[in-house]
Amino acid sequence: MDDNRPIKKFKDDSLIEFVAETCLKTEGAASLASVDSDDIAEGILNKAVFRRGVMMARTKSGLLFDIYVNVWFGARIPVVAWNLQEAVKKAIETNTSETVSKINIHVKGVQRR
Domain coordinates of the chain in residue numbers? Predict the structure, then answer.
């Protein structure tokens, strides 16, 4: 990483929006899905911030993301999940001073084109 480049500072809502946009640019991801009410309740207990199919919590070891997506019909789900994890981790760690500790991908459905 180039230590001379400026690091962008994000508020939590902006960080979630940045992650959402990164997910939508990932091949195979059709859309972001709604977050289940059980997950919202758990997120509130863990002081998570959620919006647009993305939940984020700050932990001692870094940011934890739960991302809820729908995939395109015919897409290989494990490949899409892996690509989402890699894209989000790279986007966060190269554009901010934050560290990503964990990214959970929840495939909620399949969409036809």
Answer: 12-111
Cα separation of 103 and 56, whole Å?
Answer: 9
Rounded to whole angstroms, how far apart are CA atoms 77 and 11? 31
Q: Could you give the 3-state DSSP secondary structure of residue 45?
A: helix
- Name the H helices within the chain: 12-24, 37-45, 77-95
CATH architecture of the region 12-111: 2-Layer Sandwich (3.30)
Query: What does the pLDDT look like over 16-41, one tens digit per residue?
Result: 999 999 999 999 999 999 877 666 55
| 58 backbone φψ class: left, alpha, beta (φ>0; ψ -120 to 50) | beta
Q: Tell me the pLDDT tens digit for each residue of 49-101.
A: 667 799 998 989 999 999 999 999 999 999 999 999 999 999 999 999 999 99
